[in-house]
Amino acid sequence: MALTANTIETVKATAPVLKAHGLAIVTRMYERLLADPDLARLFDPGAQRSGEQAQKVAGAILAFAEHVDRLEALTPALERIAARHVGAGVEPGHYLAVADNLLGAMSDVLGTLASGDVLTAWAEAYWFLAERLKAMEAAISAQERRAA
């Protein structure tokens, strides 16, 4: 599945807004996510308290928006993210909770800037990226099983 031209254009156009509000969006996303104890266990409490995790994720989301038309530039970063996900025990089903909370946080923080078109484009882009990460995570897990 490829991203539509409209999605690429819309996501890329949100980069300046994400540069200005990305940390607030991710902070709000984590507030929402960490309310669920089953999800909270997946995150490093120290990185949450220090804000390091939120800063990294906000940077990753901005990088995705800026490079959505040339995702190959993000492959090394995606490989590192996938490896961290495997180590943390992230499962494919967790992506739904992150999607719901990320899009909800975008709406919470951006208000009317997060129009239906923007949220629809980000939902498509998120699931495109999630499927790519899940495939990478499955490959890493399979490789680890073979090595064991």
Helices and strands, with pairings:
Layout: H1 5-13, H2 15-33, H3 37-40, H4 45-50, H5 52-67, H6 75-88, H7 94-110, H8 116-147
Give the uncertain stretches in residue-range form. none
Structural class: mainly alpha
Binned strand content: under 5%
What Rg do the Cα atoms give?
15 Å
Query: What is the CATH architecture annotation?
Result: Orthogonal Bundle
- CATH fold type: Globin-like
Say which CATH homologous superfamily is assigned.
Globins
Provide a count of the helices. Answer: 8
Give helix and strand order, one letter per element, not per position: HHHHHHHH
Percent of residues in helices: over 70%
The CATH class designation is Mainly Alpha
Mean pLDDT: 94
How many domains? The number is 1
Shape: globular
Largest sheet: none
- Number of E-state strands: 0
What is the CA-CA span between the terminal residues?
33 Å
